[in-house]
Design goal:
Oligomer: single chain
Strand content: 15-25%
Number of helices: 7
Keywords: DNA-binding, Transcription, Transcription regulation
Largest sheet: 6 strands, antiparallel
Protein name: Helix-turn-helix domain-containing protein
Pfam families: HTH_IclR, IclR_C
Organism: Streptomyces lanatus
Length: 213
């Protein structure tokens, strides 16, 4: 801690991070041990976070992330979209296909940014806000592949006809961005994805990840 930082705020943020990393919540004692502070401090931190709906406690007294975090999270999408647009525009123009940034939203894949090419005669209409299961479509499958092999160099995922008849997709996961799980991809009307597209999508995913760090 430096003179310019707040110890209380730092502890509160650490509480939220600890709770976000568990599915079952944490007790006051567990939080006290992890933070290295006494239980009284933890009680005060939880009470403050509860007032802002950022933390809730179940009947057993275990603390969990509160619904207030979702309200904050909704404001993240516009920031992520803005950071990703330059790379998506470049990808769409280079490939001549609709480019998209997709993030995880619960058990679904959610397209939060879409850029269509300007010079093609036709392209796939793909809109921001479009949702689909994570296990269908290149965007979702790329995210799942990163979960299964988190330490490996990112590759790309190809699919055909899983979300729209006659359309093929290619996507690569975003890696190394704290708090963001997603992928960058393209969708095109074709029986298969040209060979160069996969590598180009991987590069675009790296560009977006760098913009978000």
């Amino acid at each position: 801690m430096t003179a310019e930082t707040s110890q209380t705020l730092d502890r509160g943020l650490r509480v939220l991070k600890l709770l976000a990393d568990t599915d079952h919540g944490l007790t006051v004692t567990e939080l006290s041990n992890k933070l290295g502070v006494n239980r009284t401090v933890v009680y005060r931190l939880l009470a403050t976070l509860e007032q802002h709906a950022l933390v809730r406690r179940d009947l057993g007294g275990r603390a969990r992330v509160g619904l207030g975090v979702l309200r904050l999270g909704r404001q993240v999408h516009p920031l992520v979209r803005e950071a990703a647009l330059p790379a998506l525009r470049s990808l769409a123009e280079d490939i001549g296909a609709t480019a998209h940034l997709t993030l995880v939203d619960g058990t679904e894949a959610l397209a939060v940014a879409v850029v269509e090419p300007t010079w093609t005669d036709y392209h796939v209409a793909y809109r921001a806000g479009f949702r689909h299961p994570l296990d269908r479509g290149a965007a979702g499958r790329a995210i799942l592949s990163a979960r299964q092999q988190p330490m490996e160099e990112p590759g790309y995922t190809l699919t055909h006809g899983e979300l729209e008849a006659g359309a093929s997709g290619a996507a690569a996961p975003l890696l190394g961005v704290t708090g963001v799980e997603g992928s960058v991809g393209v969708v095109m009307l074709a029986d298969s994805v040209p060979e160069r597209v996969g590598a180009r999508v991987v590069d675009a995913a790296k560009e977006v990840a760098e913009a978000l760090r």
